Amino acid sequence: MSGVTVYNHMVMPGIYEGMLEEYRALVEDVTLWDVAVERQVEIRGPDAFALAQYLCTRDVSKVAGGQCRYTFLCNYEGGILNDPVLLRLDEDRYWLSLADRDILLWAQAIAAERGLDVVVREPDVSPIQVQGPKSKPLIGDVFGEGIAGLPYYRCAWTVLEGLELLVSRTGWSGEFGYEVFLTDATRGSWLWDRLFEAGRPYNIKPAAPNQVRRIEGGILSYGTDMDDSVNPYELGFGRLVDLDADGDFVGRSALAVVAERGPERLMTGVRIGGPPQLGNPTHYPVFAGGARVGRLTSVAYSPRFGANLGFVLVEAAYARTGIELEVMIEGDRFPAATEPFPFVERITGPDS
Fold first, then answer.
1. Hey, which residues does 167 pair with through a beta bridge?
2. Which 8-state DSSP code applies to residue 239?
């Protein structure tokens, strides 16, 4: 491992061989990710559904046991606090699989304030992601065809050598993949080694979440592409705000106003000229006709396209396809043009 970062107050592997080397392994073979930093909030008890519904912008009543849903958690002004995956493990048990921000105490406070009969806690389940086109045969070898055949955004419990695990058909790569959640935190190294050994015939590589592939797949990153100053409609994800759902949820009133008037800013994909960019340590200003109209939130060079791809949050009038822009990177201006994202459709399998 040659680089680390901090995520959810934990040290996380940031790079092993290199971003482009890991990209090739991800799109051609299979990769193993240590994403224990992907912390969970568990909501359990008689009022678990009521709390999950109040926290999430999605209609949780439509989520059956064993299903997962990408959702937003918003503040009362409609700003995004997190964009977790919601997993419904049982009738009265949910996990919020979090991006990089404290949510546990917020959820506990809301539960107490509303007098709900529910336990809100953080389970220590240290997920590992198995991502790439050869992940399905690897998972089949380890857990059997039933688990390997999970439909997209479904999860199931299984047992491996006496250890109970949760496996979900989810991931942050844009490629076919899975997440494996521990129930015994002392077995993390054992599970990593077990999966890595099973992956040797498939040319497995250790890797970190890959910025190139996630941008190609239109996967947004909390804290980079969004925060509590941005609402779901500005990201183009208004379909994930269920204003017709029964009952209230945090931010509903504010988001209803945005839905009625339309967002003033929009996120769109962008293709940028200039030398290859392997990331951005900060947001970069975006210009149209000499006037600043927004900011570049993410950028990475894509070997697939031979170009720098990224996301820009700009005034709504400049979010149409084919708008010519300029992006200022480290003091130099480079030409750019807007285009829809995802640049490459996510590979979910025929059962998605």
1. 156, 180
2. G
* Backbone dihedral angles phi then psi of residue 157, each to the nearest 5 degrees: -85, 145
Strand 128-131 vs strand 177-181: parallel, antiparallel, or unpaired?
antiparallel
Element (H, E) at 95: strand 93-97
Is pLDDT at 280 greater than 50 in this prediction? yes
Q: What's the pLDDT score for residue 347?
A: 82
Phi/psi for 71 (5° steps) reads -145, 175
pLDDT tens sequence across 136-149: 999 999 999 999 99
Rounded CA-CA distance 234/237 in Å is 7
Dihedral, CA atoms, 315, 319, 325, 326, nearest 10 degrees? Answer: 60
Name the strand (E) or helix (H) holding 261: helix 252-261
Share above pLDDT 90 across residues of the chain, in percent, rounded to a whole number: 93
* Average pLDDT in the chain: 96
Question: In the numeric block, which tokens belong to residue 129?
Answer: 């992601």
CA distances from residue 145 to 138, 167, 231 in whole angstroms, order as listed: 10, 13, 40
